[in-house]
Specification:
It is a single chain. The chain is an alpha+beta fold. The chain has 5 domains: about 270 residues, Rossmann fold, CATH 3.40.50.300; about 90 residues, Elongation Factor Tu (Ef-tu), domain 3 (Beta Barrel); about 70 residues, Elongation Factor G (Translational Gtpase), domain 3 (Alpha-Beta Plaits, 2-Layer Sandwich), CATH 3.30.70.870; about 110 residues, Ribosomal Protein S5, domain 2 (2-Layer Sandwich); about 90 residues, Alpha-Beta Plaits (2-Layer Sandwich), CATH 3.30.70. About 30% of the residues lie in helices and about 30% in strands. The chain has a 7-stranded mixed sheet with strand order 2-3-1-4-5-11-6, sandwiched between helices. The chain binds guanosine-5'-triphosphate and magnesium ion.
Length: about 675
């Protein structure tokens, strides 16, 4: 951006920009290009060749996608920068949100693809909700032939803030050969591999340039009455002033500048860097925006990493003061201070305001913690992790790895706040919960690579229950004569069904000491014991057993004998009462853009869902929420269908609602499977 040098007050403190945007839009390629044009790379890499500075982990290389944030430190025209290239997969979104909280601004990379624009909505919304300054970098312009005016209009439909075009492309036939900068009104022709050359504004874009420039000025005037008056009087302000206004409006997240480029060919990348140089807020302004409390040092942990050689590292942005190795932070001492650059970790002695630094071995610090002086506070502004939408049951592949596995999982959970772990729930399995198949498979891959624990995965079991429909009287006697004194207990019970949700009730109606009082708890124990796995193989609920009569023997009766008799009574009695399977039904709330509401309803109906209705999603213009009762067994891969039908935008939350009878073929299948499982156990 020529002619703007005088507007800058060169900040000494490093600024930090997060590169975010939909999957495969070219964020890692943009980082690579920035490193290349700023002289930070010997040789530029390509995603397809697997040799970029970012995506260095095995998980990322093998998938050709970013699986975690890539950090890089670069210097462009003497300004130091930390760039944080975020993964684009919707399943890894939560990590990006934490990264964004630590950045001075975000570059949103997107493709000029009309059909994919909608996918940007939730990200832009998050940025606006948190007033994070951001700009759009429309990438891959070499591969698409679209009208920038139409594209801009479509993009505007998903942004609450006005999008302000900063340049118009110059087209020759199908290809884009240069651009006109709308502030300086200078035109440039691309020169592959080199800075662009200054040319005269071609006639073909003159009108378009004038119109776009006018629109840009009008957007700025919306936030500046003085500028508005001058525009009305046809007085055009000097470029200097326009740049200042652009920077002010960006810092307050009032406008979103839009740039174009082709990262893989370094197209538009120097321009983007210049815009960042002049307009991205300095760390002190960001700290003010985040209302970082008074005190030094001030820093925030935005990510936690466990690495084999360094142990736990808390990645922090220093907002104020200085952090040095060995210093006390919260309750611990910093043991090792590191800079991360791609896969490289370099030890440093200290870090100053603005820098991103990894603090070694501070066990008590968690992602999101704000450290002010000697105080550590969880950050109130920190984004809530999303509710889980996908789960996998895991099991160590090697017996004896259980303890190792639990330790490793604890570390994974510290690293990734969107992961949840459950052990000893209704099905006693170990279950990982997260944002989708990729998210959880990554966790499994990391368990193996970083902690050397291999696990097998499978779909988690559904916590089915069973109950009865009828009633019966049951007389059972346990009698055994073995040498010395024998075993004897005799019980008569009445078994009947209870209403849904009433659980298990045991009643004692013994009169006249037919069974001595002290044996009665043993009878109940025996019944409860059997009920954990009823005739269909599942826990029995919603039934009552009344002990009405019985017999005992002065020598041969015992607690053990009565427990066994109680057990026999239900074991023999329950099958006569019409056992029936109960499946858990969740209340599911699906959130989708309104145009997908009918699709969401169809997905639910095709999965035996009972639709309860739909409504506008509170606070989300243009979105709906569809509520339904859905069998838990239909929830497992719901997210897969939902995402594939809604451009990845649909999400849902569930909570257990009730148990419902399941009969017919579905039920037979469940019971058969359970039987085979129990037999092979
Ligand atoms: N035609 C064209 N392709 C590009 C450009 N930039 C990136 N690509 C391609 O787009 C694909 C994705 O590039 P990445 O840089 O990995 O995209 P990303 O946004 O980092 O992807 P995730 O981090 O996985 O979300 C790769 O195949 C790149 O070669 C570009 O300027 N033009
Ligand atoms: Mg990437």
């Amino acid at each position: 951006m020529p002619g703007t040098e005088s507007t800058i007050t060169h900040p000494a403190a490093p600024r930090c920009v997060a590169i975010v945007g939909p999957q495969a839009s070219g964020k890692t390629s943009l980082l690579e290009s920035i490193l290349s044009v700023s002289g930070g790379l010997g040789r530029k890499g390509l995603i397809k060749d697997g040799n970029t500075l970012g995506d260095a982990s095995d998980e990322a290389r093998s998938r050709q996608m970013s699986t975690e944030v890539n950090l890089a430190n670069v210097t462009f025209l003497d300004d130091p920068w930390t760039l944080m290239d975020c993964p684009g997969s919707v399943e890894l979104e939560s990590e990006c949100r934490g990264i964004l909280m630590a950045a001075d601004a975000a570059v949103v990379v997107c493709e000029p693809d009309m059909d994919r624009v909608m996918g940007l909505g939730p990200l832009l919304r998050f940025l606006d909700d948190n007033s994070i300054p951001h700009m759009l970098f429309v990438n891959k312009l070499d591969a698409y032939n679209v009208s920038t005016a139409e594209l801009l209009q479509r993009l505007q439909s998903v942004s609450q803030r006005p999008l302000v075009l900063r340049e118009v492309p110059i087209r020759e036939g199908e290809s884009i050969t240069g651009y006109v900068d709308l502030v300086s009104e200078r035109a440039y022709r691309y020169d592959p591999g080199k800075p662009s050359q200054l040319i005269k504004i071609p006639d073909s874009v003159a009108d378009r340039e004038q119109q776009a420039r006018q629109e840009m000025l009008e957007h700025l005037a919306d936030f500046d009455d003085d500028l508005m008056e001058r525009l009305l009087e046809d007085v055009i302000p000097p470029a200097e002033e326009i740049y200042q206004q652009l920077a002010r409006d960006l810092a307050q997240d009032l406008i979103v500048p839009v740039m174009f480029g082709a990262a893989e060919r370094d197209g538009g990348v120097r321009r983007l860097l210049k815009l960042m140089r002049h307009e991205v807020p300095v760390p002190a302004d960001t700290a003010a925006r985040l209302e970082v409390a008074d005190g030094t040092p001030a820093l925030q942990v935005f990510r936690t990493i466990h690495a084999p050689h360094t142990g736990k590292m808390s990645l922090a942005r220093v907002w104020r003061g200085k952090v040095s190795d060995g210093m006390t932070v919260g309750e611990g001492r910093v043991s090792g201070l590191f800079k991360l650059h791609g896969g490289n970790v370099t030890k440093v002695a200290a870090a100053e305001a603005g820098e991103v630094v990894a603090l070694g071995k501070l066990d008590a610090l968690q992602t999101g913690d704000m450290v002010i002086g000697s105080e550590v506070q969880p950050n109130a502004l920190w984004p809530e992790p999303p509710s889980p939408v996908f789960a996998l049951a895991i099991n160590p592949a090697n017996r004896g790895d259980e303890v190792k596995l639990t330790g490793a999982i604890q570390r994974l959970l510290e690293e990734d706040t969107a992961l949840r772990f459950e052990h000893g729930g209704e099905t006693s399995e170990m279950v990982l919960h997260g944002q989708g198949g990729i998210h959880l498979q990554l966790a499994v891959d990391r368990l193996k690579r970083k902690y050397n624990v291999e696990v097998n995965t499978r779909q988690p079991q559904i916590p089915y229950k069973e109950t009865i429909r009828g009633a019966t009287s049951q007389h059972s006697r346990f009698k055994r004569q073995t040498g010395g004194h024998g075993q004897f207990a005799d019980v008569k019970v009445e078994i009947r069904a209870l209403g849904r949700g009433e659980g298990f009730v045991f009643e004692d109606k013994i009169v006249g000491g037919a069974i001595p009082r002290n044996y009665i708890p043993a009878v109940e124990l025996g019944i409860r014991d059997f009920s954990e796995r009823g005739p269909l193989g599942f826990p029995v609920v919603d039934f009552a057993v009344t002990l009405v009569d019985g017999q005992f023997h002065a020598v041969d009766s015992s607690d053990m004998a009565f427990k066994t008799a109680g057990r026999m009574a239900v074991q023999e009695g329950l099958p006569k009462c019409g056992p029936v399977l109960l499946e858990p039904i969740d209340e599911v709330t699906i959130a989708v853009p309104s145009e997908y509401t009918p699709k969401a309803q169809r997905i639910l109906s095709s999965r035996r869902g009972q639709i309860l209705g739909f409504d506008a999603r509170p606070g989300w213009e243009g979105w709906d929420e569809v509520k339904a009762y859905l069998p838990r067994s239909e929830c497992h891969d719901l997210i897969v269908d939902l995402r594939s039908l809604t451009l990845g935008l649909g999400t849902f939350s569930t909570k257990f609602d009730h148990l419902q009878e399941l009969t017919g073929r579905e039920a037979d299948k469940v019971v058969e499977f359970r039987k085979s499982e129990l037999e092979s156990a």
